[in-house]
Amino acid sequence: MGAPHERSDAARNRERLLSAARDLVAEFGAEALTMDALACKAHVGKGTVFRRFGSRAGLMMTLLSDSESEFQQGFMFGPPPLGPGAAAKERLIAFGEGRIYFVLENGELLKAAGAATRNRFDVPATKLSHRHMEILLREAGIADPWVMAMSLTYALDPERIVDDVRVRGISPTRLTDSWRELITRLLPAA
Amino acid sequence: MGAPHERSDAARNRERLLSAARDLVAEFGAEALTMDALACKAHVGKGTVFRRFGSRAGLMMTLLSDSESEFQQGFMFGPPPLGPGAAAKERLIAFGEGRIYFVLENGELLKAAGAATRNRFDVPATKLSHRHMEILLREAGIADPWVMAMSLTYALDPERIVDDVRVRGISPTRLTDSWRELITRLLPAA
DNA sequence: ATACTAAACGGACTATGGTCCGCTTTCTAT
DNA sequence: ATAGAAAGCGGACCATAGTCCGTTTAGTAT
User: Of B117, B128, B131, B152, nearest to B68 (Cα)?
Assistant: First the structure.
């Protein structure tokens, strides 16, 4: 990405690693991916894996980045009600619904990305989500949008959503309905 | 606690372990406590530590149980507005405030207890909090109290509260104010 | 083509939570 | 007091994330 050329061996190894990681996730799931197995499958030393991605969480974030930036495009530049053009309340409702389905599709990766991080707020996508909600909440007249956005961020925590649906048997619809009720009550009627 | 006598050696070791654990937490903090160090300090085998507490999370929960049950007493049997006697809205506000201060006092232990568990909802105290809020939300006419209580549970996540205050520099007052705003808007005016 | 340098490499090593299982101790029934 | 059974014990062992550092290699300047 930066100016200084990436060495050819580095580029080759990155491709190998990414490809091997995708294979392993596809076959055994993100939970089961170990850094040793990845290094081995990619025919690369363990040190190389960690230099490239920093940590297991970093690897998961890299793996996520495609679908993630697609979702981000949606709420930042896409059509209303998710994108700009609708009222803050409608956008927040759409955002939460979108996020819930996004998490249910990429749940394993997201959980794995958040788990290894000291505070899960370090996940860049989470920061961006928070900022987005903060702006909408400010627009809607919430007194302390930053803190309120944090409450909502945790309410949409990947672990929470995935476990509600997969462990505790709550249907996605119940989650989105409840989110709608939460936002509807939270924000003053239009 | 059940009928069958606890063997005297088991009882002795439990005391040793608890005492050693409290010492270690007091001196180095809960984060820094390792199971090996605990076993060593208590002059006990590592297997004994795990048989007694099951896991690191289990140990932390045991360490918490005193202050925890005190807080639980407060919201279940204590005086209003925290305890029974006040309106659901007031009780929820008081509950959140109490929980925030409780977490700030026992944050390390709580984080450690939640971290090692598969889903942090496994922490018994968390389950109880959830149930308490569920009941109050039902009383206040929320459509899906179980799910809404889960959203609020995550909004009060120990990791969130501790990191907001200690890492992101948010004052406890801002947290409680925002919680009050959240509940006030969420629940219909009395 | 050669020599040089900075980047990249790899895998042994560490830290730590958790498991396993053969040995020891306590309790109880006789 | 003795023997047998059940509970408890301990520490070697395993899995896995992450670090360290001596060695190799790709690019570059001459």
Answer: B128
CB atoms within 10 A of CB B174: 16
CA distance B178 to A155: 15
A37-74: pLDDT as tens digits: 999 999 999 999 999 999 999 999 999 998 899 999 99
Among the partner residues A119, A178, A186, nearest to B147 by beta-carbon distance: A178
CB atoms within 10 A of CB B146: 18
Angle B96-B100-B101 from CA coordinates, rounded to 5°? 120
- Whether chain B has a CB inside 8 Å of the CB on A159: the answer is yes
| Residue B142 near chain A (CB below 8 Å) | yes
- For an interface test with B, give the residue of A89, A159, A171, A178 to mutate (most B CBs within 10 A): A178
Sorted by sequence, the CB contacts under 8 Å of residue A35 that are 6+ apart come out as A46, A49, A50, A56, A59
> Model's pTM, two decimal places?
0.91
Nearest-Cα distance to chain B for A168, in Å, is 10
Tens-place pLDDT, residues B87-133: 999 999 999 999 999 999 998 898 888 876 666 777 788 899 999 99
Tens digit of pLDDT for each residue in B171-188? 999 999 999 999 999 998
Q: How many residues in chain B? A: 190
- The spacing between the Cα labelled CA in A168 and the C1' in C18, in angstroms, equals 26
Q: In Å, what is the separation between the CA of A87 and the C1' of C12?
A: 59
Nucleotide nearest the Cα atom of A53 (by C1'): D18
Q: Nearest residue to C16 (CA, C1')?
A: B34
Cβ atoms of residues B67 and B102 within 8 Å: yes
DSSP B120: G
Cα dihedral A72, A145, B128, A93 sign = negative
Is residue B107 within 8 Å of residue B168, measured between CB atoms? no
Q: In the complex, which nucleotide's C1' lies nearest to the CA atom of residue A12? A: C8
Measured CA distances, B114 to A34, A126, A146, B109 (Å) = 23, 20, 25, 9
Greatest Cα pair distance, chain B, in angstroms, is 59
